[in-house]
Design goal:
Helices cover 76% and strands 0% of the residues. The chain is built from five helices and no strands. By secondary structure, the chain is mostly helical.
Length: 185
């Protein structure tokens, strides 16, 4: 309780002295127009100094931010270029693989033909014109198609089209598998 009374007494004493000093200052400042102008000039000078410091700190923050942005942008550009280079290399590899597979198409066709005893079909001009529609069932059964699979004929053009599609699809599949791998920065 005694401590509270001492603190209250000191607070009242400080308040009275501050009020007295403030009163003296205001009386002194408003005592003449020259003093009032001098105080306004000092206040304006203090405000200008404060604004100058704020502007310096804003310029420093802007410079730091611009430097960080430029660094981040340069890193992003380098990452983008690395990714593009990797994708171009992967695409070139896929294209080379496709061309290699396509170059071997005739050899694979000859090997398939020899293994399955395919013979080239005679030209349409040398074949007699017979009506074969009567010998083909309209809806073949599953067993009939499976039993006749070794006698299915395929033309060289159809084989090349299927082989080119296979080569392209295989190269694209392998390229897509490489694209999904992350790029190391």
């Amino acid at each position: 309780m005694e401590l509270l009374a001492i603190l209250a007494f000191r607070a009242i004493t400080i308040w009275r002295s501050l009020r007295y000093l403030a009163g003296l200052g205001l009386r002194w400042a408003f005592g003449s127009p020259a003093r009032l102008l001098a105080l306004l000039a000092v206040a304006a000078l203090a405000m200008a100094a404060w604004q100058y410091r704020r502007a310096e700190s804003a310029i420093a923050r802007e410079s730091t931010t611009a430097t960080a942005f430029a660094t981040t942008r340069a890193q992003a550009e380098a990452t983008r270029r690395a990714a593009e280079a990797k994708y171009r290399k992967d695409a070139a590899d896929a294209q080379a693989q496709f061309l290699a597979l396509s170059a071997d198409a005739d050899a694979r066709f000859a090997a398939y033909a020899a293994a399955h005893r395919l013979r080239p079909s005679p030209s349409p001009a040398s074949q007699p014109t017979t009506d074969r529609t009567a010998s083909l069932p309209e809806i073949p059964t599953t067993s009939a198609v499976l039993a006749a699979l070794d006698q299915v004929w395929i033309t060289r053009a159809d084989w090349r089209a299927c082989d080119a599609d296979y080569s392209y699809a295989l190269a694209a599949h392998q390229w897509a598998g490489q694209v999904t791998k992350p790029v190391a920065p």
